[in-house]
Amino acid sequence: MSSSVSQTGGSSEAMRFTVTKMFDDLPCSHRAWAQQGKCSFLHGYERVFTIEFGCNELEKDTGFVIDFGAMKTIRALLQDQFDHTTVIAENDPELELFQALSEKQIIDLRVMHHPGMEGAAEWVFHNVDALVKRQTNHRVHVLKVEARESRKNAVTFTPQRAQASEASL
Predict the structure, then answer these.
(1) Selected residue with higher pLDDT from 40 and 12
(2) What digits encode the pLDDT tens for the residues 89-105?
(3) What is the CATH number of the domain that holds 131?
(4) HSE of 83 in the Cβ direction (CA atoms, 13 Å)?
(5) What is the helix (H) or strand (E) element at residue 157, kind and residue range?
(6) Structure pTM?
(7) Residue 70: left (phi > 0), alpha (psi -120 to 50), or beta?
(8) What are phi and psi of 78, to 5 degrees?
(9) Residues of the chain with pLDDT > 70: what percent?
(10) For residue 29, what is the enclosing H or E element?
(11) Domain that holds residue 156
């Protein structure tokens, strides 16, 4: 994990303080069954998530955006979903086969709406945001998530403007 902190200014939608944390070492397999190419085959790689957190007010005792000790619960959430797991789409026509493999403990199955990096980034955003809001009494929010499948390929998920406006309240 690596991190950085910055202070931002500007519009009411912008958080005054941000911190960025990278979570890596999450080897995972998936398949994009509906894709007409090699991605329709089961394949895997190490997933890396870079999460940007923001707040308008620092934690009063520590002066932190978020205590890095709280990152352990985020890492645990990500490990449970992506560490040595097989992620399959909820509408995969072979879902029953993957469920049978899971029952035989051949794979550690996770079923998601979209198992690719775009779906993973969105899943991480919503689940980590909910966790962090609970931990900080809604003081800290996830601003964006970058999901990286390799050094060449990444996707970024950011909430729609309406969600971003709610996050700054």
Answers:
(1) 40
(2) 999 999 999 999 999 99
(3) 3.30.479.10
(4) 10
(5) strand 154-157
(6) 0.86
(7) alpha
(8) -65, -40
(9) 87
(10) strand 17-30
(11) 3-167
